[in-house]
Amino acid sequence: MRLSRYFLPVLKETPAEAQIVSHRLMLRAGMLRQEAAGIYAWLPLGFRVLRKIEQIVREEMDRAGAVELLMPTLQLADLWRESGRYEDYGAEMLRITDRHERELLYGPTNEEMITEIFRAYVRSYKALPKNLYHIQWKFRDEQRPRFGVMRGREFLMKDAYSFDLDEAGAKAAYNRMFVAYLRCFKRMGLSAIPMKAESGPIGGELSHEFIVLAQTGESGVFLDRRILDLPIPGEDVDYDGDLEPVVTDWTSRYYAATEDVHDAARFAETPEAEQVTARGIEVGQTFFFGDKYSKPMKAVVSGPDGVERPVQMGSYGVGISRLLGAIIEASHDEAGIIWPDAVAPFGVGVISLRPGDAAVDRVCESAYAALTAAGLEPLYDDTDERPGGKFAAMDLIGLPWQLIIGPRGLAEGNVELKRRASGERQSLPLDKALAAITG
Ligand SMILES: Nc1ncnc2c1ncn2[C@@H]1O[C@H](COP(=O)(O)OP(=O)(O)OP(=O)(O)O)[C@@H](O)[C@H]1O
Ligand SMILES: [Mg+2]
């Protein structure tokens, strides 16, 4: 992408309304624009990162055997009356009436709708297990939308729903999602710790919140530092195998809990040197809730014995849009964002220090073409802005590499290569620089 043709409205001043660093940086880097409280337009740079995060989550869901579909944002109130949640959900639910006076709502989550879809088609245990997911906008009329994408009213969520004949099957489904979550967050450069949780309005018996440590997090957390070093299964993890040992390792070996369920006496058993009291951001949550929805909504399957019973369900959410904020909270410096390679909006910024200079233009164009061909998605700053402004903007938007090309370096046959995360710079010929970037 050529910057001269792109839309990157970088702000020089720090917006006064932003209280935390990720919100400030997203506004300054031209990623996001607030259209109403907790409702944002995703500007091109922010949208690219959102899509990358979404794609990682999609790949890990697919790998774990979940199947993608897409449910609508609007749902019928009557569906929620079946589960009894229509009244319970309260003021967080945005209720809408259409021209025929039919009551609708903008979905805050989809347990009811997926149960309705399931019961319409599935009657026999032979179709199980199933896990269906979608990545769709949600609306929750939060009392205090704040911190930008961290607590929006409209936000993008991945929500998966598992269906099994019995509790043992449902626990295996839960374990698959648990492992997929460990993998997802790691791929984004995050260390997200599963912590035992209360299940809130979703309901149920078994639940974990996946928490990224950050000073600005909304939840207080307590953990044994050693949990951060537990291994995470690789790409070759066998989702048909028994994942219970992995889940047991992560859930029972070391203490980790949010303040809502914290047990001070148990925490005290952790060696003092390993005790961490911190704050964290919830980026995902897993629930097993059995027949909480299938029973009232009559989603039943017949077992091998021919007897019908309510299907055993779980649900699994990831806050896709919240993750942008969480990643920035975990990875930035005074100059701006430092994107982990896997979610960076562009892989490398090519900075021309003198557009119009024939030699500089020629080398920039050839670098741009080579990087594009290598799949690195370069952003080429071909504008007339002063070099100081270009460097500041590149640091702010946080691309992993910067390739700086100017007449002085070229006179010696060199370009400059900078790694954003370490700040390390080196002068070297273009082919060596390209080799370093493409690895
Ligand atoms: N208002 C919001 N803005 C952005 N992301 C959200 C919001 N509410 C929930 N999420 C994300 O969606 C995921 C799944 O939703 P879930 O129902 O577990 O949320 P929740 O527990 O109500 O979240 P919270 O406790 O932060 O309000 C959460 O783990 C979080 O990452
Ligand atoms: Mg939650």
Walk me through what this model shows.
- By secondary structure, the chain is an alpha+beta fold.
- The chain is built from 13 helices and 23 strands.
- The strands form six sheets. Strands 3, 7, 8, 9, 10, 11, 12, 13 and 16 form a nine-stranded mixed β-sheet that branches.
- Helix 1 crosses helix 9, helix 2 runs antiparallel to helix 6 and helix 2 crosses helix 9.
- It is globular and about 80 Å long.
- The structure holds adenosine-5'-triphosphate and magnesium ion (MG).
- Adenosine-5'-triphosphate binds next to strand 8, strand 13, strand 16 and helix 9.
Topology:
Elements: H1 21-28, E1 32-36, E2 39-42, H2 44-63, E3 67-68, E4 74-76, H3 77-83, H4 85-88, E5 94-97, E6 103-106, H5 111-121, E7 130-139, E8 154-164, H6 167-187, E9 192-196, E10 206-213, E11 219-224, H7 244-252, E12 256-258, H8 264-267, E13 275-290, E14 300-302, E15 308-310, E16 312-319, H9 320-330, E17 332-333, E18 336-337, E19 348-352, H10 358-373, E20 378-381, H11 387-397, E21 401-405, H12 407-411, E22 415-419, E23 425-428, H13 430-438
Parallel strand pairs: 3-7, 19-20, 19-21
Antiparallel strand pairs: 1-2, 4-6, 5-6, 7-8, 8-16, 9-10, 10-13, 11-12, 11-13, 13-16, 14-15, 17-18, 21-22, 22-23
Helix pairs in contact: 1-9, 2-6, 2-9
Bound molecules: adenosine-5'-triphosphate and magnesium ion.
